[in-house]
Amino acid sequence: MTDISNVILITAMDDGACAHSDHAHADLINDFLTRHYQGDRLNKVDHHGGGKKAMPLDMFIGAIDYLDRERLLEFYNQIPWDKPDRVQLMIQGRKDNGFTLYKPLCSEAKD
Q1: DSSP states along the chain
Q2: How many of the other CB atoms lie within 10 Å of CB of 19?
């Protein structure tokens, strides 16, 4: 039996961009998931939005088996998001009726 959690991460465009990655802060989440959840990771999907305009954000989704929500949230809250007011993490566990929204604990943007 599996215990899948659906995960959606939305960030400002290129949050944490650096010489090595346009999505460095989301990459931190993926590194965490890869290490702790048998290579699972979130996939970038904002380019799949319909319409004539691009979505002005980065969106990542994934289905993670046996996710330790508290452990992920602890890690998520340690990331130095460039625009924390634009970051949203949503998780829906197998027994949840809907997604729960988590904002970073640090809500002030960096200068």
Answers
A1: ---EEEEEEEESTTTT--SS-TTHHHHHHHHHHHHHTTT---EE-GGG--SSS--SSEEEEEEEET--HHHHHHHHTTS--SSGGG-EEEEE-TT-SS-EEE--S--SPP-
A2: 5
A 10 A CB-CB count for 29 gives 22
The residue with tokens 């599996």 is 2
Whether residue 60 is predicted with pLDDT greater than 80 in this model: the reply is: yes
Closest CA to 5 of 107, 99, 104, 101: 99
The strand pairing partners of 101, in sequence order, are 90
pTM comes to 0.89
CA–CA distance, 10 with 59 (Å, rounded to integer): 5
